[in-house]
Amino acid sequence: MPDETKTCEQCTKPFLIIQQEQDFYKKKDLPWPANCPECRQKRRLSLRNERKLYKRDCDSCKKSMITTYRPDSPYIVYCQECFWKHIG
Q1: Which domain holds residue 41?
Q2: 10 and 27 in one domain?
Q3: Which of 4, 23, 22 lies closest to 14, judged by CA?
């Protein structure tokens, strides 16, 4: 199957879907992307919180720390020391 050129729905720039990508999408039974790689990356990065920081206690040792996760978020957050203890 040859490489296919599509037009990005976001920025209207043409982008290429190469053979390896087509094989991957077919294998995983996924639709082909509607947006170019740059617009997909921008969308993924827009979901990240890099500007707002919160004071929160470590869920293991209860030491106060600064994190990007709000105190009412459902995620478990560890301080650096506890993080490495749980991984190791």
Answers
A1: 4-46
A2: yes
A3: 4
Which candidate, 36, 32, 12, places its Cα nearest to that of 21? 32
Same domain, 61 and 34: no
Measured distance CA(87)–CA(84) in Å, rounded? 5
**Number of domains observed in the structure of the chain:** 2
Q: Is 65 exposed, middle or buried (0-12, 13-18, 19+ CB in 10 A)?
A: middle
pLDDT score of 49 more than 80 = no
Q: How large is the greatest C-alpha to C-alpha distance in the chain, in angstroms?
A: 56
Cβ partners under 8 Å of residue 66, min gap 6: 53, 54, 55, 56
pTM beyond 0.85, yes or no: no
